Amino acid sequence: MTLWYLARAAGVTALILFTVAAALGLLAAGGRRPEQRFWLQYVHRSASATGLVLLLTHVVAVLADAHVDISTSALILPFTSGYRPFAITVGVLALYGVLLAAVVGAARGRLARSQAFTKRWRSIHVAASVGWLLSIGHSLLAGTDRGTPWMLALTLTCLAAVGAAAAVRLTNRTAQASTPLNLARAGRTR
User: Fold this and answer.
1) Residue 87: how many CB atoms within 10 A of its CB?
2) Which distant-in-sequence residues (6+ apart) come within 8 Å of 47 by Cβ?
3) What percent of the chain has pLDDT over 90?
4) Listed residue (101, 69, 87) closest to 134, CA to CA
5) pTM (two decimals)
6) Could you report the per-residue pLDDT of 155-172, keeping only the tens digit for each?
7) What is the DSSP letter of 112?
8) Helical ranges in the chain per DSSP H
9) Using CA atoms, how far apart are residues 22 and 132, in angstroms rounded to an integer?
């Protein structure tokens, strides 16, 4: 039972931390003052890194649990899990998205000198957003707590938090675009 509790706790906490990271990532972008942006990005990265450690703990605990029919081959071959194959495949894809964003994010400082990489960073970083969204799907499809009121409420709260952060970002972007200086710049480029 210890591995089962560890897997559940690590998975749920990773989902919460990745939600915090996603929301802060959305809020950090845009026209914030440098000190605000620094702290938002610092907490964004810290939540991401801690979430990644907990995600790996979740995966190891699930694979080590003898009561669940999930083998390491499920990490490579889709739909091979003996336990909810679709739900596990969604979770594995979420893992891939988050890992891709983490590896590229860790190398970002070294690659920042490359103009080509800097232009592609946002499109690569979308993998983290896709990973987060897939982890929401995984939480709704897998696990013994997926249908309990507390887990549904937690998952919906995660969706609402990121949705609210996205709305704030869009509102700020629209407000910035309509400032007189930005309108004048747009007129000059036409």
Assistant:
1) 18
2) 17, 18, 20, 21, 24
3) 59
4) 87
5) 0.85
6) 999 999 999 999 998 998
7) T
8) 2-28, 34-64, 85-111, 115-141, 149-177, 180-189
9) 8
